Amino acid sequence: MSQNEQLQAENARLRRIADDAREKLDAALDGTGLCLWQLDVPTGKLVIFNRRWGSMLGYQPGEISAHFDEWKARLHPDDAEEVLSAFYDHLHGRSSFYQVVHRMIGKDGKLAWVVDRGRVVERDDNGKPLRVMGTHMDITQEKLYQEKLARLAHQDPLTGLDNRLKLQQHFEQAQSRPHWQPFSLIFLDLDDFKGINDDLGHKAGDELLVQIGRRLRQACGQALSVARLGGDEFVLLLPQAGSGNLLVQVESIFDRSFLLDGDEVLIGVSLGMTTIVEPDIGFEQAMNSADMAMYDQKRLRKRG
User: Fold this and answer.
1) Which of 59, 106, 146, 279 could form a disulfide with 110 if both were Cys (CB 3.0 to 4.6 A apart)?
2) Cα–Cα distance for residue pair 229/215, rounded to 1 Å
3) Pairing outcome for strands 111-123 and 98-105
4) What is the sign, positive or negative, of the torsion defined by CA atoms of 152, 158, 163, 166?
5) Is 229 helix (H, G, I), strand (E, B) or coil?
6) How far is residue 185's CA from residue 304's CA, in Å, rounded to a whole number?
């Protein structure tokens, strides 16, 4: 074999090794959701070392150009200022690396959450940045999972209404507003809900609670919170303005029957309202006051 043939054979062997290494790198990066990128700062040209970035945004290979302006245009408008500020801070030497968690807008408005990291790997003689290398990590699924957990932590699983924790948060937010205004808290307790469960079954009872939750949301569109505490207890947090009319409106939703598995059912409700007139009244104090007012109404109705 001539020296030239030996060199060609060696080059072919090195290409196979390089291709094999590239395939393994692509597989490793794609498996972790990582996109490895390099930016040529003077030209804005991006080199993407695997296909993850485009696919993460819903694009096919070659459908999106690899350029800094293309990336910048796809930053979520609510995140763009923070992202670019962090990026240029690093380029100008104000931080040792660039890292930010943000959203990007992909094809057809698809949103992707990414952890974006990078650092300057080459500067010219005057210290100006020439090349930046970094990674994008797709964390969309993790973010969706976190959002789901947050909803579960603050949401009644049956009706989708606020739970007690979320109700208390809304109460405390209303109390801490700079321009404080009185607001009202209404406690609702269904009359003889146990009879519905006993006569029609717990499935029908659950469906009744879902329908009541739906009607409460419709009737109280401006409510600060519509919550279910559990069982057959609901609480409304309302601006004081118009709360008296809303109380009548809430009572009226029980004038109409509920359809449960083909049966029309009427159920009564007892209501108790308290108005928070001072910003130092606590959540438990307000809840107890509305609860007592509700039981007073329930006792009066039973006597009647």
Assistant:
1) 106
2) 16
3) antiparallel
4) positive
5) strand
6) 25
Amino acid type, 27: A
CA torsion angle for 190, 237, 159, 139 (degrees, to 10)? -160
Tell me which DSSP letter residue 157 carries.
Answer: T
pLDDT for 88 equals 95
Confidence (pLDDT) at 216: 92
Q: How far apart are CA 215 and CA 253, in angstroms?
A: 7
User: What type of residue is 259?
Assistant: L
Q: Give the containing element (helix H, strand E) for 34.
A: strand 34-40
- What local confidence, expressed as pLDDT, does residue 21 receive? 47
- Whole-number Å distance between alpha carbons of 249 and 93: 62
For 238-304, the DSSP string reads: EESTTHHHHHHHHHHTTSS-EEETTEEE---EEEEEEEE-STT--HHHHHHHHHHHHHHHHHHHHH-
Give pLDDT, residue 250.
84
What's CA 126's distance to the chain center, in Å? Answer: 45
Rounded distance between C-alpha atoms, residue 151 and residue 157, angstroms: 9
Residue 73 CA to residue 108 CA, distance in Å, equals 14
DSSP string, 47-64: EESSTHHHHHTTPPTTSS
Q: Which residues of the chain register pLDDT less than 50?
A: 18-19, 21, 24-25, 28
